[in-house]
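Supplementary Methods, section 5.1.

A reviewer requested that the exact input to the structure prediction be made available. We therefore reproduce it here, unchanged from the version used in the analyses.
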Amino acid sequence: MAVNDCTAILSYGIHVPGVRNAEQVYDLSVGAMCNILRQLCGGEWHPDLVTLPRERPRDIRPYREALGSLLRFNALQSAVVFPSRWLTRPLPDADAFLHRLLESRAVQEVADFDPVLSRETRRAVRDLLQTVDCSRAAVAGRLGLHERTFGRRLKAAGTTFRQLLDATRADVAKQLLHDTRSPIGRIAVSLGYTDATAFARAFRGWTGMTPREFRARSRPQS
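The structure derived from this sequence is encoded token-by-token as follows.
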């Protein structure tokens, strides 16, 4: 969940390339997110925008009927965008005792959790790739760490922020090339590259292929 100004974005992403039937997973994820939010907020809730990192299907009527919002295909991730004011809406069936119990367990889990040694770092990088600031400081802030502390933990884990950034960019690039028809130039910009040439050079270093070659080999033959 990310909140910017008056907008909330609940998103879901597959962090490995080549997942079979990924388009069905994405469809299910946005459907589930919309159902959860309707249950929490009430039947009058509806999204302003739903994005899907998959090709546009020939018939989008079922999507409009189920989601009832503006749709955007070939996106970077599956996401549901809605006004953030819904996040302050009281829950009619809230259980104060259960909330205190779960909150205490969550605090303990967080205390024992090292985000640097988990997938949380890559998730934070992936989310911030869509913004103008995907710096080490921004990722550290997303993880609730001071930048110096984040750097020390990366070093102790035997990696660097640049290595994590490149590995995440490589995974996202391969996933988008495989699952969508988004233009290569658009993918390059979404990953923070100034142009398609710089992206192609980096991609060749990761895979030994150009983005166009990778897309041609990874997509099933019709």
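Residues 47 and 82 are 5 Å apart (CA to CA). These observations are discussed further in the main text.
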